[in-house]
Amino acid sequence: MSNREGGSTVMLQGPLNMETVPAWFAAGLKCLASEDLRVDFSRVESVDSAAVGMLLGWVRAAKRGKRVLRVAGLPGDLLSLARLYGVEELLPQQSA
Question: Model-level pTM?
Answer without folding.
Answer: 0.90
